[in-house]
Amino acid sequence: MTALLIALVLAFVVQAAGWAWVSVGLNRVRDLGSPASPEASGVALSVVVAAHDEAANIGALLDALAAQTHRPFEVVLVDDRSTDATADLVRQRQAGFPVPLRLVHISSGDAPTSAPALPEPLAPEAAIPLPPKKNALTRGIQAASHDRLAFTDADCRPPPGWLAALARFAEAAPEAVLVGYGPLAGSGWLGRFVRYETALTAALSIGAIGHGKAWHAVGRNLSYPRGLWRELGGFAPHALSLGGDDDLFVQDAARAGAEVRYVTAPEAFVPSAAPATWPRFWRQRRRHAAAGAHYPSRLLAALGAMQISGLILWIGAPLLHVAFGVPWGWGLLAARTVLQRGVLSTAWDLLGAEADVRLWHPVLDAMLAGYHAVAAVLGVLPTPKRW
């Protein structure tokens, strides 16, 4: 029993310290706010989208981009080895599109179809082929006309004010990396859980950015200067990771001293559909783990400490009560949950979290602890190698 008591106390201390640190960073970003809205920002942007067999989604994406209120901008759409009508649908829209719409085509013989195997130990980074999505994004970045780049995914629907908000932030901080929020839309308990987990991850991301320790971003809502991308070697430093064109790049930028700002303007949030089934959810998370495996050891240790300490509290409190008749573990869990909710409330207000996520917070957090336990077991499985 003594060991369990010590573990619970230590877990609470880790959680309290971690959430206090996040709270300080969150408040810094919140207080910084959004740049003042000028009549019109003249920042020119190139929107880069990599698409692979997205015929079902590309029309709606182009509609959303055509409805953007900001000018000037262009769209660079990279058709990456599609076997459906993606390229044809883009060509049909080019003539009447309200801004330049450029199509970059990658044939099946021009790009890898999976993440590369481990190279020779002394192979230079430039000699390692990029995995499919990084290769497609690289081609799009190279074809772009403007230095300020904006990224989204082919299955997303950016709201009309997305680019206008990015332009305001870019005008205020021309060399900054702009990290945006990508809320997920879903119903039922899976949808509710995914929305909670997405908002919690964003809270941790915002808190870290407030401390100058950016570690996370989503590729469906990201912007940075092409000059910075070139200075950092593009995506070559992480060629062995299938993913990471977003978070690994942002980590590199932060370590290089680049300013990283979180775009808190609600009109810049880019929603996407949550996985419809649990198997799809797990496949998506295993794909994300491909990039997580390349995180720096100190970052992995910090994230692991938060996850493990939360799991210890959720398992240890009922175990201490049932096995030893000692109920005060529930007090530690309750105190931690109240502290966490106070911090998350700040993030929820910034991110416009739905009422059901707020209502079911304790249940969803218990589910998150269970998810972390299962993810630790599944972590021994190989991550996906294809986009």
What does this structure look like?
This protein has 2 domains: 2-27 and 298-378; 36-281, Spore Coat Polysaccharide Biosynthesis Protein SpsA, Chain A. The chain is 52% helix and 10% strand. It contains 13 helices and 9 strands. It has helices spanning 2-32, 55-66, 86-94, 132-143, 162-172, 188-210, 226-231, 247-255, 278-292, 297-324, 329-351, 355-359, 361-378, and strands spanning 45-51, 73-80, 101-106, 148-151, 177-179, 184-185, 222-225, 260-262, 272-273. The strands form 2 sheets. It has a 7-stranded mixed β-sheet, sandwiched between helices. A two-stranded parallel sheet has the order 6-9. Strand 2 (73-80), helix 3 and strand 3 (101-106) form a beta-alpha-beta unit. Helix 1 runs parallel beside helix 11 (329-351). The termini are far apart. The model is unreliable at 117-125 (pLDDT under 50).
Short description:
The chain has 387 residues and is of the alpha/beta class. The protein contains 13 helices and nine strands.
Helices and strands, with pairings:
Elements: H1 2-32, E1 45-51, H2 55-66, E2 73-80, H3 86-94, E3 101-106, H4 132-143, E4 148-151, H5 162-172, E5 177-179, E6 184-185, H6 188-210, E7 222-225, H7 226-231, H8 247-255, E8 260-262, E9 272-273, H9 278-292, H10 297-324, H11 329-351, H12 355-359, H13 361-378
Parallel strand pairs: 1-2, 1-4, 2-3, 5-8, 6-9
Antiparallel strand pairs: 4-7, 5-7
